[in-house]
Write the structure tokens for this entry.
Amino acid sequence: MHKKKTVLDFQKMKAEGEKIAVLTSYDFPMTGLIDGAGIDMILVGDSLGVVVAGHDNTLPVTMEEMIYHTKAVMRARPNAFVVADMPFLSYQTDLTSARLNAGLLIKDGGAAAVKIEGGVNAAAAIAAITEMDIPVMGHIGLTPQSLHRMGGYKVQGKGDAQAEKLIEDARAVERAGAFAVVLEGIPMGLAARITEELTIPTIGIGAGPHCDGQVLVIHDILGLCSKYSPKFVKRYAELAPIIAEACANYIADVKGGTFPEERHCFK
Ligand code: KIV
């Protein structure tokens, strides 16, 4: 069994050049499996709105849903460090709501930290929450809650002006007190530059190999969702056809009267 991870471990891992492995998880059984495999950090991502709830994007996800899923993850008692995403509208309108909602993800959900999307524009919220001694992970670059501003899920930080803006975002997140920052959908050279400059660990998704760690959505790496896979995803299993075949076999057994057998029955 791996040792319980804390914020201190991630700073040390960056200093020693040990990569940080992060996966999303949203429920009890999957968390047990991911944690048993030795993951460093689990993100209860608002991506659950898409991969679990079937929405087109993450914008409809609510605080209640985030708390529900964070609680389910925590019931697996993971040794991984658990970060809960702050959903759209839970931190953008005012700092009092940002503080309260972050506190609820820790107090009710049981997470150890929260994640906030945004750079310079999120710095005040990050600072307000870290002042309450709640660790915050930043998230810059392709930020899915900014879908409509970005005009789609497009790689960010291309060209000198956009790259400079992202470097400013990274600096602002670090200055505001974040313990780590997700770099999503940015050119690998820019991610390397930000990783080199920051003292806090960078966790990449579609940001190349030079980040201090990597994060992917569990449904994507297991091949649980659609056949379409973004370029940055590596699929480590193809579970969708296996599940479909198991269900088809069950249906055939029930309809053909071959399930249940005697060994499945009580006498
Ligand atoms: O919501 C999420 O799962 C995320 C990760 C993909 C970084 O934000």
User: Anything to note?
Assistant: The domain at 7-238 is CATH 3.20.20.60 (TIM Barrel).
